[in-house]
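hiii so my PI (J.) wants the whole complex modelled not just the main chain, which honestly fair. so below is everything: two entries, each one labled with what it is. i double checked the lines twice but i was tired so who knows lol
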Amino acid sequence: MSDPKIPMGATQTPAPSAAPAPSDLIEPRLKELRSLAHSFALSEGNLFLLLAIIIGMFSGMAVVCFRITIEWIRLGLLGSALAPPHWRILLAPAGAGLVVAFLVQKYFTAARGSGVNQTKAAVYIFDGYVPFRTVIGKFLTCSLAIGSGHSLGPEDPSLQMGAGIASALGRHLKLSRDKLRLIAPVGAAAGLAAAFNAPISAVLFVIEEVIGTWSASALGAIVLSAVSAAVVMRSFLGGEPMFRVPSYTLGHPAELLSYAVLGVVSGVLSLAFTKIIAYFRPKLRALPEWTFYFQPAAAGLLIGFVGLRYPQVTGTGYAYIDQALHSQYTWQILAVLGFAKILTTSLSFVSGTPGGMFAPTLFIGAMIGGAIGGLEHHFFPQVSATVGPFALVGMGTFFAGFMRVPITSVFMVVETTGSYSIVLPVMISNTIAYLISRAYQDVALFDLLAKQDNLELPSMEEQREQIVLRVEDAMRKPDLPPLQAGDTLARALESAATTTEEVLLVRFPTGRWAEIPRKDLPAIVEAHPHETQLREILSTARLPVLHPDQRLDDALRFIQGHALLPVVGRAGSRKLEGILSVQDILDAYQKTAP
Amino acid sequence: MAIDSQNIVSRYLQRRVLLLSLVLLALLFVITASLARSYHARETGLAAEWQQTGNTDLAKGKPGLAIDDFRNSLSYGPDDPEVQMRLAEALLADGRYIESHSYLANLWDQSPGSGPLNLDLARVSIQMGDVNQAIRFFHGAIFGSWDTNPALERRKVRLELCEFLLAHRRTNDAQAEIAGLAADTPSEDGPLREENGRLFLRAGEPVNALTEFEAAIRINPRQSQWLVEAAQVAFENGEYQKAETYFERSDRVSPSAAVHASLLLVRDVLGNDPYMAGLSDDEQARRFWRDFKQGLDRLRDCAGSGMANLSSSSPAQDLQQLTKDGQELQKRLNPALLARDPETRNEAMRFVFRVEDTTAKVCGPGTGFDQALKLIEARHEGSNS
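here's the output for the full assembly
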């Protein structure tokens, strides 16, 4: 009978005369474990990609549950009609506000706000750490707030929930710190993609607003998670775009002018909306802490009063955006709805009610866009399209001005409507709104909110606008031409006598470069005859080269260990454009220092 | 060795967490699926409920309420083309044409070949004053697809289009449409042929109208209304023999004083028209003479009625002149001369027609024989011109 402690298949050895060493007992097991582990071996990089898919699936399903919960709550509190009975619309947001405030103050303090900055904070401050309690808190409080009619949206909370789920998985899998930092944006993209049914916009938003760079390692995981989240969401809630729009064709090039007007108006209004939030939010936050329990309820009551006349401005308002896109309102009503939504969203947001700004921004944009379109069509029917296309363009335009994400806004309009034909007006209008917003509001909304919360988060917009120093900004002309590989040692000695540089650069016919430190020259001369060609001495040495358009940050990495490096053109490395030393780099940075 | 063991343990932990994640994923999938299923069921139920309420409100003539109902329905089932269509119809009924047009245009993008959709768009276009667009959509509806009874629906659309064209005085277009309608009408359907006939009449095509009425009569020869209509059109066209036939048949099937009077009038025309083809010379001469005598009688009656003396108008003076001319003619004319001399015949008939015209102005329209003479005049002038 075999020893039960010895695994099946292992050779049974005779019992040793002496007691075996502990290492001898462990070794076979370790061997077995090692072979098993190798059979499923996954590098951290591959594990991360696999994890991105899993995160996407988790986030997709969480967002589906979130959206359904919001709808169930809405049905329960407000009823099934788009225009709820008056008593419900008056009481539901206020009552829910009380409960939400209690939950936030007592149990889920991190659930306050939209969720975008919290995700950024996780990346830049807390090494990718988003407490799972925040995910639960966000789910409960946001679904209650939005479902009861508070003027907020589910997208930004979905983003934060995705980040939270990703963070929890990453922690349990004991990922490295680098990967943990990266995992929150991966989850954020998944959450947003599922909430919007717009994976491209989600990826772009996370890159434009959260991580700020197009790193290949991050991009792969972000795309995978966004796609898997969107697939999961579509399998449960359907693959149709968020809004159904009538077909659109640009009738006349002059129509673009009317969209430019929309860009100007949306830019100004988005600016005003940002300023309202920036002004009132700290004022309410400065009130005594006990008022935090009542601020969402008070905001809810005021929203209820507005909702008595205009129920369209409560909740997410998707159904009404759809109606605006189908030219279902006159321009006067659209204008009123746009301004009323600015009011109700400001109330909800500044009162600290958890919920997102994406949906309200789209709503305001659609209404303002439709109003401008209707007005222009009234006066210039030949040049201007009807209300619907303007409402469509307005969504993206206001979003671009308010969120300051111009690229995301264009793709978002295309993805949420499934209509590509509108892209030209969207691009023009969005750019104008974005530029106006930038010109008159230095700090973007999310950066502003971070500052109000005493968080020093990097501004992606500032990073994009930073001046990038390049090699051509720091390089200088050499004081003598470089030596050739065929030159003799005697020629090198002559050059060394006429230059102040620490090294002599040597060029090979193949385009390879090498260096001879001046201080080493006497020793070389002693070891070799004067007529020795330099190629014999520098047979294996290879010096890195720089190009004028390379970033100085990159040049710093190459220059380490060298006194200076040759700067050559990209067309051919034989032509010396200049030289660059560490001191040159430092001088360039010094010159551009603020 | 210690680091190696730690790595292996860490990898084992990772695998366990991954496996656990997959289990959780499966669990979450089940929860999400059941949540989604129950929500979709609720959504479908609510969409149907609101649609039903909307239909009821629309049927009650409350389009304003129906609009809200259909919008509520669409918020739970935004892709339901039937509800979208009903909403568009409610908006149309409420006079909100632009909104209705927008919804319909969206639906049209998805199914440009839908007959009902094109019809609604045509109606909206009419309300928006875009006649050409309306005609385009009418044609889209005529050639589009219909779920139930397509032939009948297409005919209804064409009828609506014809009415629209006639109302907008686009007679040529209307005539073309009615011709199309007639071509598509089943030959055995009497009521439809009769309907075509009426449309042809309204479009100013009495010949085609008579063809359609006659086709209808061939299907049901005892339909008195159709017989009367055919007789009247034949009468208007100057086809008195046909008119007599149809009036006579109608009078037999369903006697009425009006039809009988018309029949007598037609008979008067047919029995006294001296220009009618195929008459013998004797008969023709007899008719000329009879008509002349009737003209003199009519002149006498009118001149003696006192009406002529009351009036100092130009027709009254003409009457006096006619009396003088009549006396002269009476002296010269006799049946033998009329039978011989065509110029005298014409002179006699010119006199008769002048008498009928002038007495109609002075003493009011004639009846019976005199009315027949007026018709003979019209017929004769028509054939001359």
